[in-house]
Amino acid sequence: xxxxxxxxxxxxxxxxxxxxxxxxxxxxxxxxxxxxxxxxxxxxxxxxxxxxxxxxxxxxxxxxxxxxxxxxxxxxxxxxxxxxxxxxxxxxxxxxxxxxxxxxxxxxxxxxxxxxxxxxxxxxxxxxxxxxxxxxxxxxxxxxxxxxxxxxxxxxxxxxxxxxxxxxxxxxxxxxxxxxxxxxxxxxxxxxxxxxxxxxxxxxxxxxxxxxxxxxxxxxxxxxxxxxxxxxxxxxxxxxxxxxxxxxxxxxxxxxxxxxxxxxxxxxxxxxxxxxxxxxxxxxxxxxxxxxxxxxxxxxxxxxxxxxxxxxxxxxxxxxxxxxxxxxxxxxxxxxxxxxxxxxxxxxxxxxxxxxxxxxxxxxxxxxxxxxxxxxxxxxxxxxxxxxxxxxxxxxxxxxxxxxxxxxxxxxxxxxxxxxxxxxxxxxxxxxxx
Length: 434
Description:
There is one protein chain. The protein contains 19 helices and 14 strands. By secondary structure, it is α/β, with parallel strands linked by helices. It has a domain at 83-103 and 219-397: Rossmann fold (3-Layer(aba) Sandwich). It has a 6-stranded mixed sheet with strand order 4-5-13-10-11-12, sandwiched between helices. The longest helix has 20 residues, at 218-237. It is globular.
């Protein structure tokens, strides 16, 4: 598997280089030089495959010359050892539950796969791998659990002060061992900017072996394609042919993986990028002007991103042809008030409790289905509702089942380093703290 930079299509690096460098020095993002078309026989019979079998077929098509297939299968079986069920709410409405992994968020797919890929390629006596992560909510917890105790690695997680839920913060700050948390007095965009600056800093790169576990890393993107194929397989078993995905979108890695699946041959009718008021992409698709803005805090905190890193990947997938992109992708944004009402409406109609991110995806799907009534609409549920207890009315809150791993967090000591948004503060921390 060879990859280029979105800023330099003449660049060619192998898969381990892309995984460990995370981001090219030209500040683009790595993309596969060749995106193969999956065998049509596999697509036609995908309903006969399990999630792990689907994952292996997809990954091997992309990565067959990077990792021996037997080793790749072992990595997938170890990393993707939980389900991603499609739950029917009514004849046209389905929810894809992606919160059944250890951190209770869809990020487990990418984080667990990536940590095992990195561990596979790490050689004995090599310089310690420093994994830098900016999180707006769920990424950090998934990465922390994915890398916890992995030899020869250190993980540094940056999160915005006061802008993640209590459970999300506990998942970041109670691990110990090789996991370190930094509480940034700013926004997610500030956290993301610090990580990107670190990768571009010559002194840091000379002294440390830096990589990222954010969705900018190609090893995070690939495994997220698995659940799109698996969801389609589940619907195909029910005789559903026309499928639409509505995806909660913040940094646009999740929907970016869906669009990579589409380019691999997944026969999907439409993708809907559902955002909160951080609406950079909806505005772009409406006006043709791509204008980032400082992020705004919302109830759907994992989507509080004003400058989505993965949008450049999506544009690259469509060769920067906005007209072609708009044939496959629609986008809509919703306010906190609309989100809260959607949570109540979903519960009233289906007795289903959805987190705020999930509720936004449902809103976008329902809007689409007003003009497209004969499609199987799937909205992605990206996090367990227990992560957002303050969002729900008391009657709903009382019915949320608290998983055992959350109860275990509540008795652990929280440890985080407070920091401002200045890069020199972060740089000094990385150079002197370990």
